[in-house]
Every structure is written in C-alpha cells, then in structure tokens.
Amino acid sequence: MSLTAISPLDGRYAALTRPLADFASEFALIKYRVTVEIRWLIQLSQEPEIVDVRAFTKTELRLLEELIEGFCVDDATLVKDIERTTNHDVKAVEYFLKERLGESSLSDVLEWIHFACTSEDINNLAHALMLKNGMECVLQPKLHELIEAVADLARPYAATPLLSRTHGQPASPSTLGKELAVFVHRWRRQEKQLQNQEYLGKLNGAVGCFNAHVSAYPDADWPTIAQRFVESLGLTYNPLTTQIESHDYMAELFHTLTRFNNILLDFDRDIWTYIALGVFRQKTVKGEIGSSTMPHKVNPIDFENSEANVGIANALFEHLASKLAVSRLQRDLSDSSAIRSMGTGLAHTLIAATAALRGLRKLTVDEAKLAADLDANWEVLAEPIQTVMRKAGLENPYERLKDLTRGAKITPEGMHAFVEGLELPEDDKARLAALTPGSYIGIAGQLAKKVLG
Predict the structure, then answer these.
(1) CA-CA distance, 453 to 103, in Å (whole number)?
(2) Structural domains for the chain
(3) Could you tell me if 378 and 415 are in contact, meaning their C-beta atoms sit under 8 angstroms apart?
(4) Catalytic residue among 2, 105, 107, 291, which?
(5) Residues 6+ apart with CB under 8 A from 69
(6) Is 167 a catalytic residue?
(7) Per-residue pLDDT at 332
(8) Average pLDDT over residues 187-197
C-alpha cells in the first residue's frame, strides 16, 4: 500500500483491488492493445484475399504468442517511453512491436502491423476485452459469492418468524429467511443479465466505412473479415459505427451494475437496521476497536463501508453510461478520456461486495430477540382477525379492530377475549384463537425455500 497514493483504490484498498489490475490498469490497456495488434497481424496472414501477407511458420506464430503471453510491466514501460516521443499511445504500441520483431524472421511484415487500422479499431477491442475479462474473472465471481453467502445465511431461517416493519412500525410478520431471500432473488435477475451481457467490437477504419481497406484490396469482403476477427476475440461484432464503437453495450453493462449495486445498498441499509434492532448480533474480533471512547460498541462498519463504495461506483457508472453513448459527429476525444475511469467503478463495486461479505461473516441471529419482538406486538393480529370477520359478514370489522388496537399494546389475553366475543363459525374462531404473532407468517417459509433451494 502506498501512503502517498491519491486514490484509495491504490492506497488503503490496494490489496482488495489488486485482482483487477490485470484488466483495468494502464498496463492492462497496453497489453490488450498489443494483443489486438498481434491477433490482427496473424489474421491478415491467414486471409486468402490478402495475398500480399505471407503465411507464418509455426515458429513465428509461437514468437507472436509469446509476445502476448510474456508481456510484462517492463514491456509496458518501453511502450510508455516510446509514447513520450510519439505523444500517441496506440502508435507507441505499433512502434514497440516493430522494434521487437525487427530482428526476427518477421521483419518483412512489419508494415502489416496496424494495417488499415485507426486507433479506435485497436482501442475499442482492447477496452471490450478488458471489461469482459475483468467482469468474468474478477467481479462476477465476487458478486456471485455475495449472492450465495446471503442465500446460505437465509436457508436455516427460512421459517424463522420475524416481526416485519413497514414505515418503521410493527407490521404483519414474515420470516428472516424470506426477507433475505428477496435480495437473493433480486440479485440473481441482475446476475443473469451480467452473464448474458454482450461485449461489442468493430474494425472498420477511420469513419466506419472500410475506406483504407478498400483502397488496398477493393475485392476483399472486409465486413466478413472484420466480423471473423472480432468474433475470434470472443466479442460480438458491431457492423455499423462511426470511427468509434458506439459504447451502447458499455451503458447497458454499467446500468446493470448500477442496479445490482442499488440492491446491495438496500441490503446494506436493511442489515444495518436489523443490527440496530438486535435481530443480528455481530461477532467480536479480538483486538478490534468499535469506538475510540465507548468500549462496548461493535459498529456495523463493513456495511457502512459497502454503502459508501456503492455510492461512488454508481455515481461513476451513471456518468459513464450517459457520457459514453454520446459523441460529436464521427469522433471526438471525450469518450477516450472518460473511458479510462471504467476500472474505478468496477473497483469500488468490488470493494463494496467484499465489505458486505466481510460483514456477513460476523453476523449471528438472536432468535430470542426475534421471539420477544413478536410476543410484544400482538396487535399485528388485527389484520387476520378483521379479514376473517369480513369473510363471515360481520359489520365494521376494520373499524372495530382499529378501535381495539391503534396506539395500544395488546396482551394475548385481551386478543383472545376479543376473538371469543365474535360471532364467528367455531372453526374460524378456533383458528384465530390459536394464532400467535410467531405463527402468523403466511407461506413465507415456502416462498423462501422456493428461491433458496
């Protein structure tokens, strides 16, 4: 951790965000540019219509693959050194590759590096690969871990009664497992959208019309060649663009992540509140300080940390989703500057999910507290009683229960006496008399189990 880092991502949270470095750093961007340039050179050598690029030997192909696989920070530093002269980051990659291959048997094909490409042909593919691999290798596994951790917490309590609170006031009971399962169900919908996310790419030149390509090989089927290349990278081909890939898929991805994060924000705040109400207790960690002046405290700092990082991530995602989909005419540079921050949003999301997971591992359920809360709020049975009264055709059931319970604390004896005085069929009366706040949970347990498995 660097104590002089300006961003907490590279300072306080460096250890947490390090897994993203291979996909969201300046080094990663350079490496993926190198990857795209080399893959395009190989593709050209394999296209029958591009007759002037000879086929490569197995040794030469292995050399090119080793350039990709062995690309390291020292190589990226050389690219940055070249960039200081070129003042152009993509051109620096081209010159780096020409320098590396200049003394090899591939020295005769150096001018086919970056052939017919504009910088955005390389950049858009590099960014798509960075996002796709960063999501699939780092962020999605962490988000899935969070979902399953909440599911694991919920399962043993699928049928454990919980006093609900609507508007913060005691309300019809649910179960703890069902309330947690709601978050699992919501997250899984967003997770499915992340799994189905397309990552688009284009390779069509300076204004999206294959101008340079056609000038060199007018009879080649360039759209098919470009599609074959983009799809060989594991990306989805975008057939019609300006100079830039339109970034709509990025907006889709960032909006999905924003929704996932908003559910996490909702979860963080609910768990924080449940801790405050005593539903959850937090395990103490030896040596850990809760408050600098109040020794008794165990603060829910993990969920607060998660909430803060969700806010930062979503602010950035919302900006990028709006900004990246807008570009002046065929090209302006504002997207290029903004897109460099996409890793920041991913990193804050990673921190938020990790913090919530850390908090979850400290939680224990206080079942005695849950039972005490229910037993202290018999007035919540006003709902089922007035509902059965309606079924039986009794007059003014809602108003009669309102007069009995609103603003009052009802005892079991008082509620039983009220039920006993009702002119109800005996089976209805017996069912209501047997009801307690802890048994009035509907089919919450079944609903939870259906989601949780």
Answers:
(1) 61
(2) 17-115 (1.10.275.10), 123-367 (1.20.200.10), 378-436 (1.10.40.30)
(3) yes
(4) 291
(5) none
(6) yes
(7) 86
(8) 98
